[in-house]
DNA sequence: CCCGTCAATAACTTATAGTTATCATACCAT
DNA sequence: ATGGTATGATAACTATAAGTTATTGACGGG
């Protein structure tokens, strides 16, 4: 008792004629006869009364027709649903986005993606880039839009944009008139950083360490706005992507020497089958030109 | 995309292992591989992630599993329902029963049948035997429990019981002391009959006609009780099955000469596939011994 | 780092769905 | 009645596809 047999039975029941049903189904009439016989054999009684000229449903046939139609309808609905997934008119995936990128890169990316795939759903998990990387590793999310850590061998990644990290210091700071600054010059300044779990913090500390320096961290937070306000108030200096701060009163941005860049991109787990929606997003990001 | 493929997919999804699923389904492992591949080929994307050690469902696979399980469950339910029809633990049929038989033959028949097939349902249409015969012809009912008309070539029938028709007349009637009566003796008596559509009426009038007589019909009704009451009141005489009237005050029953019998039985249309429940009833009636 | 487990693949076999040709029967028009 | 037409059943055959055995290749645990 398979789907094909049900289809044949339903068609014959509709048309009340084996030959007509055969035509409609583009097969020969004996094929229909055989299939109906097989079905009746399996059930143990007749579904169709062929003693008269017209084919008529038996009482049991009426009951079975109802059940068969329901099954066929559900089968068709299931196929349809899967076609929607295939056509990317249905689908969901999970993405981890740190606050910094959530504020400056993700909105444009998301808006443009939605324009192309309005039916796809994205579930965003906000967390620091380091944590985001782990979420991708553990498969809690399908992709991460993160500040790319320098070494990342076990995950695939795609660079979206790179931004220069600049020193942010109060306008009235003695160093604020320099064309560029070295870590040596900054070694005694108290600094304001993101909390643990944020790649930007790791990168800055690693840079200090390169020169054998250990800065004094005045405060750490995960609020971007807080960092800017604290710098303006003279609590300490900080390091932020050049384009993430437009114009802020009492804050001066000065490039580092040598220049330090922050790479932002998408990461995902290789050898792992992703939702079609997520693949579409990755492909989309590949084509995407990030405009600052 | 057929039922078998869905079954394989659901089993693999449950066991997260192709080989184990093959064992459970009593087929070889490559058969499973092939079926899953065919399914994925048709849908256009993978349902199962086989890159890791364990077989895992993809996001699309999770969705499809849900749909597949629903379809399989409905398929199983449909099969089950049909098995119930086959086992006669489910089923209905329509039967026409005239009031006379509804009162005296049918109750016992029905009660005994129900004892054997408690789950079967009968839909009873009450109408005169003549009408009942037409209902069977038109297939409005599957069987009729009727007074068998003398000639009935186009329908199958089965005799259940035969009863003698006796003359019913008031106890104080001049003829009430006779051991038997002829139609000749009754030719001037006003008679009370069933309405048109009742075989008993037809039979009585035909008997009169055999002797070239036309009786005067005082009144006709379709109420058995009315006939008895009118006879008791002396409105006229009547003719009824011997056993249908037990003891009624002021009514005397006298056999006819020659004896006239009424045959009661089941009729159904040949070359017409009946519901299994109805077949069971006909078979049951075949075995049934009617006790008066 | 090798071994065991497990899915994929290839070549072949079997089962069965489908085909053509033909027959049997019910119904309709003459 | 009665012959013609329409329609389903049957038989013999073919083609498709589901299943089998044998084998390979890849991943992960001890």
TrEMBL record, chains A, B:
Keyword Transcription carried by entry: yes
Whether Ligase counts among this entry's keywords is no
Give the UniProt family note: Belongs to the LysR transcriptional regulatory family.
GO molecular function ontology, one term from the record: DNA-binding transcription factor activity
What UniProt keywords apply to this chain's record, in alphabetical order? Answer: DNA-binding, Transcription, Transcription regulation
Q: Which domain of life is it from?
A: Bacteria
Give the protein's recorded name. Transcriptional regulator, LysR family
The record, for SUPFAM superfamilies, names:
Periplasmic binding protein-like II, Winged helix' DNA-binding domain
Q: Which InterPro entries match?
A: HTH-type_LysR_regulators (IPR050950), LysR_HTH_N (IPR000847), LysR_subst-bd (IPR005119), WH-like_DNA-bd_sf (IPR036388), WH_DNA-bd_sf (IPR036390)
**Native species of this protein?**
Pelosinus fermentans JBW45
Q: Where is the HTH lysR-type domain?
A: 1-58
Alphabetical GO CC annotations of the entry are: cytosol
Query: PROSITE patterns from the xrefs?
Result: HTH_LYSR (PS50931)
